[in-house]
Amino acid sequence: MNIPASKVKELRERTGLGVLDCRNALVESEGDMELAIDTLRKASGMKAAKKAGRIANDGLIGMKLAKEGSSAAMVEVNCETDFAARDENFLNFVTAVTDKVLDSGETGIPALLESGLESMREKLVQKIGENCSIRRAEVFEGSVGSYVHTNGKIGVLVSMEGGNEALGRDIAMHIAASGPTVVSPDDAPADLVAKEREIYTAQAQDSGKPPEIVEKMIDGRIRKYLAEISLTEQPFVKDGDIKIGALLSKEGAKVNRFVRFEVGEGIEKEEVDFATEVAQQMS
Q1: Each residue of 214-269: pLDDT tens digit?
Q2: Residue 204 in contact with residue 217, Cβ under 8 Å?
């Protein structure tokens, strides 16, 4: 069946999909525009499901602060490649997800998808040809410091008392660079400390030193470890002569909690040889 180019163009404009997909849908529907749209919607869902098994460990961090400064939202949205992460359609989806999280306060991924984002996600998969997913979301209320690294791959939210906007950004930037896991040593989970103590004990047993010396060595290593993972004990990245705890005290501020997102952290990257990758893309 001969499909006029004008119809293909109209279908592309209405769906945002590729020329070949639009032409095939019009051929299948014998030129019926609405039926072609239905066909493409069904195909989009099927293709999205097919690509869902592929690992999406690239992507971007989205962040938005409420105009009145009373809350902030941060999300991680994943795709498969950095190339897709720079695609305008993907950027628009990240913005839509971030807006939805801030406006609704919802951080549960199933609920977010059910709110209308799933259909947007499926259309995005159809357009860019990669698996995409909303991995996690966070909302902070009250006084919030924030920072997104220039590459869009690391983002931080900090809940604070006191201080000012500049200090909040500095603290968030420090967290992005240094990656602490707790605010202070007292916040370190007991099981984590016990695990580290067990490791250090095993390492020290072969030292040949008296038990009381070994115990002191272990205590020293634990203190060093806690200082390394605690925000307040870390030297400030912009001034190594002052620790974050001292900086906060100087500014009359306090950090209640923070969250740091880094794109793809903890996601195992699938190793696929070139021939297999080509075969998968052709399927």
Answers
A1: 888 899 999 999 999 999 999 999 999 999 999 999 999 999 999 999 999 988 66
A2: yes
| CATH code for the domain defined by 55-142 | 3.30.479.20
Print the SS3 string covering the chain. Answer: CCCCHHHHHHHHHHHCCCHHHHHHHHHHCCCCHHHHHHHHHHHHHHHHHHHCCCCCCEEEEEEEECCCCCEEEEEEEEECCHHHHCCHHHHHHHHHHHHHHHHHCCCCHHHHHHHHHHHHHHHHHHHHCCCCEEEEEEEEECCEEEEECCCCCEEEEEEEECCCHHHHHHHHHHHHHHCCCECCHHHCCHHHHHHHHHHHHHHHHHHCCCHHHHHHHHHHHHHHHHHHHEHHHCEECCEEEEEHHHHHHHCCCEEEEEEEEECCCCCCCCCCCHHHHHHHHHC
Q: What is the pLDDT of residues 168-225, one digit of tens each?
A: 999 999 999 999 999 999 999 999 999 888 888 887 777 778 888 888 889 999 999 9
Closest by CA to 124, choosing from 23, 57, 52, is: 52
For the chain, give the number of residues: 283
Q: pLDDT (tens digit, 9 = 90+) per residue, 131-169?
A: 899 999 999 999 999 999 999 999 999 999 999 999 999
Domain 5-51 maps to which CATH number in 2.40.240.20, 1.10.8.10, 3.40.109.10, 3.40.50.720? 1.10.8.10
Q: Is the pTM of this model over 0.85?
A: no
